[in-house]
UniProtKB/TrEMBL annotation:
A GO MF term: nucleotide binding
Lineage: Eukaryota, Metazoa, Chordata, Craniata, Vertebrata
Keywords linked to the UniProt accession: Molybdenum cofactor biosynthesis, Nucleotide-binding
Protein species of origin: Scophthalmus maximus (Turbot)
Name of the protein this chain belongs to: MOCS2A
Gene that encodes it: LOC118314530
A family per Pfam: ThiS
Length: 93
């Protein structure tokens, strides 16, 4: 059993450009996101929901509360209602 209390937040995820085509949605609420979370784990969580996003893997950045976060081991702390944006490269690709 996991005795660590883990905080979970419901965040609002916005998809831009190519990611809208891949997910079919412009925004959605994602519940029970563990926090703090690494940006890589956050991306993996979005990939579980929308596997087609994997084509953006090496080019996408996330924006958390309008601050850009590269996907990697950077840790972000999320609160309920925080906005997370999936921002693919703006050029064609």
């Amino acid at each position: 059993l996991d005795t660590q209390p883990q905080y979970r937040s419901t965040v609002v995820v916005f998809y831009f450009a190519k990611s809208v085509e891949l997910t079919g949605v412009k925004q959605e609420d994602v519940a029970a996101v563990p926090t703090p979370i690494s940006s890589q784990d956050l991306w993996n969580l979005l990939l579980q929901r929308h596997p087609r996003l994997s084509v953006l893997q090496d080019h996408v950045v996330l924006a958390v509360r309008q601050q850009y976060v590269a996907i990697g081991d950077q840790v972000v702390t999320l609160g309920d209602g925080d906005e997370v944006a999936v921002v693919p490269p703006l050029s064609g690709g």
